Write the C-alpha cells for this entry.
Amino acid sequence: MIAAAEKPPMADEFNPLLSAEARLDNAAKLLGLDDGILKVLRSPSRELTVHIPVMLDDGRIEVFTGYRVQHSIARGPAKGGIRYAPDVTLDEVRALASWMTWKCAVTNLPFGGAKGGIICDPNLLSPGELERMTRRYTAQLYEFIGPEIDVPAPDVNTNEQTMAWLMDTYSMRAGHTETAVVTGKPIDLGGSRGRTEATGRGCMVVTQEAMKRLGLERASARVVIQGFGNVGGMAARLMSRAGFKIIAIVEYDGTVYNEKGLDIRALAEHRKKTGSILEFPEGQDLSRDEGLYLDTDVLMPAARENVITSENAHKLRCKILCEGANGPSTHLADPILRDKGIFVIPDILANAGGVTVSYFEWVQDRMGYFWNEQLVNDRMEEIMINSFRDVVAYAEKHAVDNRTAAYMLALDRVAFAIKLRGIYA
C-alpha cells in the first residue's frame, strides 16, 4: 500500500493502471501469493496496437489508433468490451482488461479478461465512418478474437449496432455466421434478452443485499446515482420501479435533486427533449459536486473512472457505495472510505451483472437455444447474490474490507487455475 507521506501526484492517482496494480499487490501480499504467480497476474497475456485507416465521407483518409489487451486466459476465453473515446489510453485499456479478469473470477464465470478501445471522437463521425472504422478494426483483430479466444462486447460509446458490424465482419472472414464471437448484439442476431438491463439490474441486486446487512428498508432508503446512461439510467429506472427513492441524479453538467424522490421516467423524457437533466420542473438544480456529497444511504457512481479520489472521498456522506462504473474510486481513496465506515460494493462485483448476462448470451449462441427474459434475470440474480455473499464472507474471514476481499477471492481463483494448468514449456 502507498503511505500517505508517499502520495503520488494527482496525475498518477488518476492512472487506472496504477490503481489496479496497487490493489492487486495488496491482495497478493495478504494471500502470501508466490512471486512468480504474481508476475504472471501482473502481466497481460497479449497486447495489440493497430492503426486503422478509414475513408471519411468527404474522401479524406484518416488513421485511428486502436488497442486490444488480453489480460488472462487462465480460466477461459478472454472477455471484455470495446470503447470509442478521444481519451482512450493503453494504460486505461490494460487496467480495464485486468479488472475484467477479476470480475469474471469473483462471479466464477469461465472467462479471462480483455478490453479494447479506439482513440476517436464518435460524435464527430458519421454512422458510415463508424461502420468502416469498426469493420477495419475487426479485420485487423481477426486472428486474435473468436468464441474460444476472445469475446468482445459493447462499452463506452459502442452499442449493439457496433457489435452487429463486428460479428458480420468476423463471420464474412470466417466463411460462416459466428454469433458467439461477440456479446451485446441485437436479439435478432443472437443477442440475449435481459442484456441491456443487466449491469443496472446487477447493481440493484447487490445494493439490496447490502441494505439487508445494514438493516435498511428499501422504501425509505435514499439513493443518489452519478451517471444517467446505460448503467446509471437503467439502475435508476429499475430501482425506482422496485420502490427505491432516487433523490438525485448527477451528470457531467450538474445534479437534479428532489428529497421526496424523482420521477425517473419523467426525468428521462425531460432529458430526451432538452438534452440535459437540468431545469427539470420536479427537481432542484445543484452542482455536480453537491450531488456527490449529499447525505444519502446509497451512492452509485455509474459513469467513468476516478470520480472518488483522495481529494474528495472524505466528503462522501453515504452508508453504501455501489460502484456501477469501472474504477470510479482510486486506490488512494480506499483507506479513506474504509476509515469512514462506508460499506463499499467494489466495481468488480457491483457491475458484474453485465458480464454475467454476456456469458449467458455466449452460452445461448453456442447452444443455438435461447432463454426467456425471466430465466436470464433469475440466473443472473442468483450469481450476483452468491458472489456478494462470497465476497462478504471472505472479508469477514480475513478481517479486510470488501474491495480487498473481492481482489483476494479473484486472485485466489485465478492463481489456483494457473497452478493447476502449470507453466507450459
